[in-house]
Amino acid sequence: MSTKPVYDxxxxxxxxxxxxDPQCFSGKAGPAKFKEGDRVRIKDLPDLFYTRTMTYTRxxxxxxxxxxxxxxxxxxxxxxxxxxxxxxxxxxxxQKELWPEYSDTFSNDTLETEVPERxxxxx
Length: 123
Hints:
alpha+beta, SH3 type barrels, 3 helices, 11% helix, 28% strand
């Protein structure tokens, strides 16, 4: 009797061998919805099990500074769903946008983080 797992957990590693991750997904996400300089808002989507989109960014408005790479979102990849890569963007936020009580003394302070496209909407 075979005890082969339902999902081959090395699937993603095999895809990236000799190419790298996330380079193995390059060209698979389709056209990017946003471009550098676009103002975006982070959607407050439910995160049932796992996400790399920090809760403190939800609802905040920032600026796209770079299209970083194409890859499955972490919440998909964690469960072996690597068939739907999407764009990841580097978004910069004013600290005051994230934490309204942030001191005006440091009004030029920013935070930059990567966010998958599914969490972004035009601001």
